[in-house]
Write a structure and sequence with these properties.
Blueprint: H1 16-27, H2 32-43, E1 52-56, H3 62-69, E2 74-79, H4 82-91, E3 97-101, E4 114-120, H5 129-138, E5 140-151, H6 153-156, E6 164-166, E7 172-175, E8 184-190, E9 192-199, H7 202-212, E10 214-220, H8 226-231, E11 244-251
Parallel strand pairs: 1-2, 1-4, 2-3, 4-5
Antiparallel strand pairs: 5-11, 6-7, 8-9, 10-11
The protein binds S-adenosylmethionine.
S-adenosylmethionine is lined by residues 9, 13, 33, 56-60, 62, 78-81, 84, 103-105, 120-122, 125-126.
Length: 254
């Protein structure tokens, strides 16, 4: 609808059925978040000693604790979901972490600036990426970094969830990429029907970041090691397609 871009924020993690399903997934020690995405995200972290960090879409706050362990002096974890923050406050609390229940579409309500803004697997829930990155830019100190992971655009591209073509042994033989060029809303079934995400092409993402003033330092499309693929054969699918896109950008002006 004209003029309402980015105004509607779905808070699906507070839906009990979704929340229970997500909790089960994250309880699995071989979840892709732990094996593939988090190591890649942390590999992009600059030296965090004496730095202030904002984690947007912080969820359980696992990364917030990790940032403190890596030397950050002050961490703010922001999330739209009260249920996710309840776990963060119970399992990952510290005097140096402040959790706040807020949407990342409303960063302008924050008065302070940070040295590093992280976001792990949350920005694909945001419709207006241009506004988000401008707001993040305005909340970074000079020289600060924005480091994020998101569902890979090859994943968000599809309008259906018919992701793979299988052979007679039920092995994935190729990915069914469709509608990559058609940006915008995607409604998927993930634990519940009607989970809203937004698809953007890789060039759109990079152009939004550079238009806001950021310099792109590194991008990653991580795949698990051979050993992991042997241990968990389902991870062999990464040979055909990455599941995550990670980007590290820097603010180089005042
Ligand atoms: C896949 S979880 C990732 C959680 C955490 N970053 C991690 O990696 O463990 C996505 C998180 O983004 C949050 N989120 C979604 N939309 C948001 C919004 N508009 N503002 C703030 N957080 C949001 C969800 O509530 C959820 O906690």
């Amino acid at each position: 609808m004209e003029g309402t871009k980015g105004m509607s924020n779905q808070n699906i993690y507070d839906n009990q059925e979704f929340f229970d399903g997500y909790k089960r997934l994250r309880g699995n020690p071989s979840a892709a978040n732990d094996i593939v995405e988090k190591p890649a995200l942390l590999s992009l972290a600059p030296d965090l000693h004496n730095k202030s960090v904002l984690d947007i879409g912080c969820g359980y706050g696992e990364n917030c604790i990790r940032f403190l362990e890596l030397g950050a002096t002050k961490v703010m974890g922001l999330d739209i979901s009260a249920k996710m923050l309840e776990i963060a406050r119970t399992e990952n609390s510290s005097l140096n972490i402040k959790y706040i229940n807020k949407s990342m579409t409303d960063l302008n309500g924050l008065s302070e600036k940070f040295d590093v803004v992280f976001s792990s697997l949350a920005v694909h829930y945001i419709e207006d990426f241009d506004k988000l990155v401008k707001d993040i830019y305005n909340h970074l100190n000079y020289g600060g970094y924005f480091i994020f992971s998101q569902e890979h655009p090859l994943t968000t591209a599809l309008l259906t969830q018919d992701y793979w073509t299988l052979n007679s042994e039920n092995e994935r033989i190729h990915y069914n990429l469709t509608t990559y060029a058609l940006e915008g809303e995607r409604k998927v079934t993930w634990f519940v029907d009607g989970v809203i995400k937004y698809h953007r092409t890789i060039s759109s993402i990079v152009n939004s970041l550079s238009t806001a003033g950021f310099i792109v330092e590194k991008m990653l499309e991580p795949i698990p090691s051979k050993d992991i693929m042997e241990q968990y054969p389902s991870y062999k699918k990464y040979i055909h397609k990455p599941d995550f896109l990670l980007v590290k950008v820097r603010k180089t002006t005042e």
